[in-house]
Write a structure and sequence with these properties.
- By secondary structure, the chain is mainly alpha-helical.
- The chain has 2 domains: about 5-50, no CATH class; about 65-130.
- The chain is built from 6 helices and 2 strands, in the order H-E-E-H-H-H-H-H.
- It has helices at about 5-15, 45-50, 65-75, 80-90, 100-110, 115-125; strands at about 15-20, 25-30.
- A hairpin with a 2-residue loop joins strand 1 and strand 2.
- Helix 3 packs across helix 5 (about 100-110), helix 4 (about 80-90) crosses helix 5 (about 100-110) and helix 4 packs parallel to helix 6 (about 115-125).
- The protein is elongated.
Length: about 130
């Protein structure tokens, strides 16, 4: 998050006021506000802003949970056959817990076969760092 944006957010959280400079004059709006946020990495946030949040660290999916989530996402959102979705989940669970990786595999397949899943995963392993 850009430092200027962090500054505006910090001011809002401290005072409840948002200020906007328009044609030489400042307009202020007082807001009764609560701020909820989510991010993958808090290290880019200014400490004075970070200290105003309660940080919850979400654990990585277990192998069983990862397979369940991948199966559901691939069958419901990506319209992948359940057998192929299960195969993708079983292949990827040894390499990652990132559900987006399974979505990438499903979208890169040219046909819904186990051989094609294996081909796509090999390419991703050879050229993409998230399947180490």
């Amino acid at each position: 998050m850009d430092y200027r944006d962090q500054s505006v957010l910090l001011s809002l959280m401290e005072t409840g006021i948002v200020s906007e400079l328009k044609t030489g004059r400042t307009e202020e709006v007082r807001l009764n506000t609560r701020v909820y946020a989510a991010c993958n990495d808090v290290t880019g946030l200014a400490e004075e802003l970070r200290s105003r949040f309660i940080v919850f660290r979400i654990r990585e999916y277990s192998a069983a949970d990862y397979k369940k989530v991948v199966l559901r996402v691939l069958t419901e959102r990506e319209r992948i056959d359940e057998g192929i979705a299960r195969y993708i989940a079983n292949r990827l669970v040894k390499m990652t817990r990132d559900v987006r990786c399974a979505v990438h595999v499903s979208r890169l397949m040219t046909e819904p076969t186990k051989e094609e899943v294996d081909r796509v995963i090999k390419i991703l392993k050879d050229y993409d760092s998230f399947l180490v």
